[in-house]
Amino acid sequence: MRTVVLLMVAGLVELSYTQRLNALQWLNYLRSRRRQPSSVWADRLSDDCPLECDCPASFPVAMYCHSRNLQHVPYVPSRMKYVYLQRNQITGIQDGVFDNATSLVWIMLHKNQLSSDKVGSNVFRKLRNLDRLYLDNNELSHVPTNLPTSIKDLRLGHNKISKIQSSTFEGMSDLTNLHLQANNIEEVEGAFKALKCLNVLDLRKNKLKKIPFHLPKSLHQLYLEFNDIECVPGDFLTTFHKLQFVRLAHNKLTDGGIPPNTFNVSGLVELDLSHNRLTKIPTVSKSLENLYLHANQINEFSLGSFCDVVDMMNYSQLRVLRLEGNLITARDVPAKAVYCLRLAVSIHL
After folding, report:
1. Cβ burial, residue 266 (10 Å; 0-12/13-18/19+)
2. Phi/psi class of residue 298: alpha, beta or left (left: φ > 0; alpha: ψ in -120 to 50)?
3. Angle at CA 61, nearest 5°, toward 57 and 66?
4. For the LRRNT domain, which residue ranges apply (predicted)?
5. Is it the case that residue 175 has pLDDT exceeding 60?
6. pLDDT band at 28, cuts 50/70/90?
7. Torsion, Cα of 154, 73, 139, 178 (10° steps)
8. pLDDT score at 241
9. Is residue 201 within 8 Å of 223, Cβ to Cβ?
10. What is the arithmetic mean of pLDDT over 237-259?
11. How far apart are the C-alpha atoms of 277 and 295, rounded to whole Å?
């Protein structure tokens, strides 16, 4: 009997406490009971966390709202630095939604349904510490305006962007990784010229007919596969001393579209010209290590493309050479190739 009375009294005390709370506080109170926080500090942190998200006490500056079927961006507490909103059904973002959390460093909004006409022109403007912004796999028709100049990693792949204005990335001198693959881009208007720290530029699977001009000299990796490029400027690589990886596979390149010695520049490590319309092996630098020429129409193995002089002291650094899917066989490889390509680990014919 005593046990029953004690339980009833405890229930009445708890009920009287919850009656003093408003609806939102009551729901947060129930959540805190379920999670059994280990400290009063953890309980306080949970008070400002949106009900749709998780804000773990072990990482108090992160808000996890991914894969929740959200249709809008929830309230973001001012203490947050990392917000994960990917894999939802968010179609738009109103101006001011992030103004309370100006310390944000990462915003993950990939794999939503964002459209450009529903994204405010000043959504990201006040986020002066923003480092990473992921907007890939959405429905954007143009790059959002007024992006913070602090961004270093910007991902806009798999959208519906057709044109890049010359002022699109103005002032973003800290940008190092720019991903624009799988859009409908036909023109870029020298938009990359001022990106002095850009290391990676991904323009795969677009509708480019020529290589963008005024690329930054800091470029390290350039991806241009699956476009409609027919030719390469003769001085394309002469000013890019840091460029090591160039991929031009699945374009419309012909022998006439590649001037002599275009790729005969030191520093280049990997060159992919596969799935084009070449009939000859272009001249490449001795420092090149990986050359992909498969699925072309090459009909001769020209050793001079790798070594201008063939002797014991002059040889290529080439490690991997892919030539399968062309019009040559092992019989077409000259005997002197053993000296010129002495470092080769793999040659595919």
Report:
1. exposed
2. beta
3. 90
4. 48-82
5. yes
6. low
7. 0
8. 87
9. yes
10. 94
11. 8
How is residue 337 written in tokens?
């190739």
Residue 227 is encoded by which pair of tokens? 């476009």
Work out the burial of residue 245: count CB atoms within 10 Å of its CB; fewer than 13 is exposed, 13-18 middle, 19 or more buried: middle
* ∠ CA 194-198-201, rounded to 5°: 110
Residue 33 reports pLDDT greater than 80: no
* CB within 8 Å of 44: residues ≥ 6 apart: none
Distance CA 207, CA 210 (A): 9
Report residue 144: phi and psi, to 5°.
-55, 145
SS3 (DSSP) at 245: strand
Of 3-12, 174-183, 248-257, 290-299, give the lowest mean pLDDT range: 3-12
**Rounded Cα distance, 346 and 234, in Å:** 29
Instruction: Identify whether the C-beta of residue 107 lies closer than 8 Å to the C-beta of residue 94.
Output: no
139 φ, ψ to 5°?
A: -120, 30
d(CA 255, CA 282): 8
* Separation of alpha carbons 310 and 89, rounded Å: 61
Residue for token pair 């319309």: 277
How many Cβ atoms are within 10 Å of 150's Cβ, its own excluded? 15
Q: Running DSSP on this structure, what letter comes out for residue 330?
A: G
Strand partners, 246: 222, 271
Return the pLDDT at 48. 87
Residue 277 token pair = 């319309």
Reply yes or no on whether the pLDDT at 63 is more than 90. yes
Q: What is the DSSP letter of 182?
A: S
Q: How far is CA 265 from the centre of its chain?
A: 27
DSSP 8-state symbol, 280: S
Residue 3 carries which side chain, given as an amino acid letter?
Answer: T
Q: Phi and psi (nearest 5°) for 202? A: -110, 110
Residue pair 49/60 in contact (Cβ under 8 Å)? The answer is: no
Euclidean distance between the first and final Cα of the chain, in Å?
A: 90
